[in-house]
C-alpha cells in the first residue's frame, strides 16, 4: 500500500483515466456520489481529490451540473516552477477537517476573507484538510506542486511541523500561521488577541459584581490557550481578585472539543467543579477557556440543580454554534475570522511581491458576545 494520502491516490487514478481516454475531453466525470461508492471513501476525500485537477485546468466543476474534462493530460499546464512569475496561482488554506456545524464558521470566515483579498490580483483560494501530524507534514511537503503560491495554515503544535515550516521558510515559500504559532520559529502569523479577549471577560464579570470567579482551561498546549490563561490571570490581578484555588487546567495535551472530549477530561471537569462548589466560598462565575468546556459546565450545573445564571454565571470562548442554542444561551468571545483571512491574504500577496523579509505578525481584537448565561450577582 502506498504511503500517499488516499485522496492523492484517487487523484492519480482519475488523472490516469483522463490520460488513457477513459474520461475523454468534454465528457462528464462520474458524480461525487458515484466516486464515493466506487472508492469507498467520504465525499470530502473525493472533493479534495478533484480540487487539484480543477486547479490545473484538467477539470471544470459547475454547480448543479457536475465535473467535466477540459483536456488530456500532457497538454501544457501552469506550474509553480518555471511558470511566469506574474501568472497567479492558488493560495491554499491547510486545516484540520471541518466538523459539522461548530468549526464550519471558522473555516468559512477565513476562506472568505482570503478570497476577497486576493481575487483582485488574479489568485484563487483552495483548501486541504489533514487528520494527523503525518498528513499535515505531507501537505506541507507538497508546496512545489502545480500552482501552489502560498499557504495559510491552521497548524498542529508539533516539533516535526516546526521543522518543516522552517524548511519552507528557508526555501522562500510564503505561508501564514493562524490561531497559533511556534515561539522558537518566528514567521508570519495572524492570531486573535486571546489575552485581550480573556481580559474582556473578566472585566465583564467584575462589572456585574462578581468577585469569586473560577477559571477552567483546556490543556495549554497551543499558544492561543496559553495566552487566554495569561490574559485571565493578569485580569484577575488587575481587578484585585484571588486566583489561588480557583484555577483548573485539564492535564495532558489532547484537544478538547465537542467531538473528542474524552472520559478522563470529563472526570477532571466534574471533580474540579464539585470541589469549587463545595468549597467555603464557592464561585459566583465560571470562565472557561473554550465553549466546549463552558457547555459541559452548564450541563453539570443543571445536574446539580444549580441555576445558570441566577446562582452561577458561565462564560466561554470561541462562539461555537451550539452555545447560542443552549437552554440558557452562552456568553462567549467571538473571533473575527473574516478579518484574519483578509490579513493572511494580504501577507501572502506582499510575499509574492517581494520586499521586506521581516515577519509580519498581527493580533485581531475579538468581540464579547453577551447572552443569557451571565447576570449581576444576586444579593
Structure description:
There is one protein chain. This protein is of the alpha/beta class and 379 residues long. Helices cover 40% and strands 16% of the residues. It has twelve helices and 14 strands. It has a six-stranded parallel β-sheet, sandwiched between helices. The chain has a four-stranded parallel β-sheet with strand order 9-8-10-11, sandwiched between helices. A hairpin with a 3-residue loop joins β1 (59-62) and β2 (66-69). It is elongated and about 75 Å long. Residues 71-80 and 100-104 have low confidence and may be disordered.
Poorly predicted segments: 71-80, 100-104
**Shape, per Cα inertia axes:** elongated
The strands making up the biggest β-sheet line up spatially as: 4-3-5-6-7-13
Number of helices: 12
In percent terms, what proportion of residues is strand?
A: 15-25%
How far is the first residue's CA from the last residue's CA? 67 Å
Q: Would you count the extended β strands for me?
A: 14
Specify the biggest β-sheet: 6 strands, parallel
Query: What Rg do the Cα atoms give?
Result: 24 Å
The percent range for helix content is 25-40%
Secondary-structure-based class equals alpha/beta
Query: Mean pLDDT across all residues, rounded?
Result: 85
H/E element order = HHHEEEHEHEHEEHEHEHEHEHEHEE
